[in-house]
Amino acid sequence: MPDILHRIGVLSSPDAVYAALTTVEGLADWWTEETEGDTGTGGVIRFRFEAGGFDMKVLEARPDERVVWEVVDGPEEWIGTRVRFDLKEEDGFTIVLFRHEGWKEPVEFMYHCSTKWAIFLMSLKRLVETGKGEPAPRDVRISNWH
Predict the structure, then answer these.
(1) Which domain holds residue 39?
(2) Residue 140: inside a domain, yes or no?
(3) Could you give the 3-state DSSP secondary structure of residue 137?
(4) Of 56, 83, 114, 140, which residue is the least packed, with the fewest Cβ within 10 Å?
(5) Closest Cα to residue 8, out of 96, 92, 74, 120?
(6) Which of 4, 18, 5 is nearest to 128 (CA)?
(7) Alpha carbons 98 and 55: distance in angstroms, whole number
(8) Is residue 142 part of a domain?
(9) Around Cβ 3, how many Cβ atoms within 10 Å?
């Protein structure tokens, strides 16, 4: 199964990055302003965008180390996939190893999602480093899929 993989370095502590990944406010400040739900382990977070949305079940949330979600509702290609953020400190950076895993096949939508994940990960970096991210609907539009 193909996966989407990205790596970014954030000039901040793992604690600050973890907070942006595990609070409704943090998620709304870098991914989509329309975020709600339960960010605790076992909870479901709802992310909405102009073109649709995703519901993610929180499978794991280890402070300053890892966050894992499973897609339980959204586009067919996403259902059952997992989104994972691994955090580690390295030379003054918090390294975020991102993975959207479990795609059945590399369909064109996966190419689109890979680019959008990169855009949103840069929004996460900006949020933690400067206090201001670029969540949807203020994100960079790359096609008619947004």
Answers:
(1) 4-130
(2) no
(3) coil
(4) 140
(5) 96
(6) 18
(7) 18
(8) no
(9) 16
Residue 75 lies in a domain: yes
Nearest to 77 by CA among 100, 109, 47, 111: 109
Residues 85-143: tens digit of each pLDDT: 999 999 999 999 999 999 999 999 999 999 999 999 999 999 999 999 999 999 999 98
Number of domains in the chain: 1
CATH number at residue 125: 3.30.530.20
> Which residue, 88, 83, 73, 72, is CA-closest to 116?
83
pLDDT digits (tens, 9 = 90+) for 45-88: 999 999 899 999 999 999 999 999 999 999 999 999 999 999 99
User: Would you mind telling me the total number of residues written for the chain in this entry?
Assistant: 146
* DSSP H helical ranges for 7-146: 14-22, 24-30, 108-130
Spatial contact of 39 and 121, defined as CB atoms under 8 Å apart: no
Residue 116, SS3 per DSSP: helix
**56 is a domain residue:** yes
